[in-house]
Amino acid sequence: MRVALLVTHIRAEEKLIIEAFNNRDISPDIILDRELNFEISSGPGQPAPSGSAWREYDMVFERCVSTSRGMYALAILNSWGIRTFNTYETAAICGDKLRTSIALTRHGIPQPHTRVAFTPDSAMQAIEDVEYPAVLKPVTGSWGRLLARVHNRDSAEAILEHRQTLGDYNHHIYYVQEYVDKPGRDIRAFVVGDRTIAAIYRESNHWITNTARGGLATNCPVTQNLDDICVRAARAVGGGILAIDLLEDAGGNYVVNEINHTMEFRNSSQPTGVNIAQAVIDYVIEQARVTA
Amino acid sequence: MTNQTPPCPECDAEVEIPADAMENELVACPDCGVELEIMSLDPVGLELAPEIEEDWGE
Ligand SMILES: Nc1ncnc2c1ncn2[C@@H]1O[C@H](COP(=O)(O)OP(=O)(O)OP(=O)(O)O)[C@@H](O)[C@H]1O
Ligand SMILES: [Zn+2]
Hints:
By secondary structure, chain A is an alpha+beta fold. Chain A has helices spanning 12-23, 67-79, 88-94, 97-106, 120-130, 153-165, 224-236, 269-272, 276-290; strands at residues 3-7, 29-32, 59-63, 84-85, 114-117, 134-137, 148-150, 174-178, 185-192, 195-203, 216-219, 241-248, 254-260. In chain A, the strands form three sheets. In chain A, strands 11-10-9-12-13 form a five-stranded antiparallel beta sheet. A four-stranded parallel beta sheet of chain A has the order 2-1-3-4, with helices on one face. In chain A, strands 5-8-6-7 form a four-stranded antiparallel beta sheet, sandwiched between helices.
C-alpha cells in the first residue's frame, strides 16, 4: 500500500503516525505542504513533490498544522478522486465553527446556544441575547486564540471594538455563545470511524481548559452515553478521524463544543492507555483495503 | 548521530538532537525555548521554525 503523509512539519503526533504505519510494514512518503505546487486541471497523473504521481497513492493522510493549506490540498486531491483522511468535506466543516454548529443542529446534537452577527452593534445585541457571561470566538482558528469571555456591557464593547480594528474579515464574523458553566474541565474524545476509542478530561483553573493552554489530561471513561453523542457528532460532520470536544453543563449533560479534524493527541495515550496513533492507522489501512 | 550539532541560531545554546530525529522535525531549544526545525540530518542543520500563522491549529 502506498501512502503519502502530508505535513507542515513533523511533530510528536506525526512521528507516532509514521511509527504506526511502519508497524504495519508501510512506509509513507512525507510530503511538505510548503513544496506543493498543483496544476489544478491536469489531474492526478502529475507528480507530487515526492516524485511519484498523485494517483499512485492509495491514500493521502493529511496532518498539516496549517489548516488552510491542508484544506485546499484535500479539496484538490478529492476532486481528482484520491482517497484522503480526512475528506475535504469533513475538514471544511470542522475548520469552521459556524459550519460545525449548523451540522450539529441538523443532526440534533446538543451544543451551547450560539448566535452569529456581522457588525459590532448586532454582535452586542447577540451577546445580550445569550446573556452574560458570553463567549466570543473566531469562526476559524484554534488553540484557544482570541477566545474571550465577556461579563458585562463595558467589556463587550471593548472587545467588539478591538475585534473590529483587526484587519482580517474573519474577526468581523461574531460567533457568540452562552458560557457553559462546566465543572473546571472539558472532555476530548477521539472518534475513529464508528467508535470512540478513548477520551480525556482536560482540567484547568482557567476557563479555557485546552491542553494547548496547559490543561491537565486524565482518563475519561467512555460510557455508552458519551460514545453515542461522539459518534453521532462525528457522523454529523462527515465522519473520519476526529477529536470531539465536549462540555458538561450545569445539569451534567454533554454539549458538543467543537470538532477537530487534525487532532493533537501526544498527551492522550498515556492517561488513557490507548495507542491512539495505532488505532487511527489500523482504521485507515482497513478502509483503504475494503474500498480498494 | 555523532556529528557536530550546530548551536541554536537564536541563542547559541547546544541543542540535543534525538537519536530517532527526522528531517523537518521540530525541536525546542533547551535554553531559549525557541522552536527549531531540523532541516537536514547529515550533517545536522537547524533553522528557526516558521512563525505560527493565524490559521494554524487542529
Ligand atoms: N461556550 C463555552 N462555555 C464554556 N467554556 C468554553 C466555551 N467555549 C469554549 N470554552 C472553553 O475554552 C476552550 C477552548 O475553546 P474552543 O475549543 O472553542 O477553542 P479552540 O481555539 O477551537 O481550541 P482547540 O481547537 O485547540 O480545541 C474549551 O476547551 C473550553 O474549556
Ligand atoms: Zn536557543
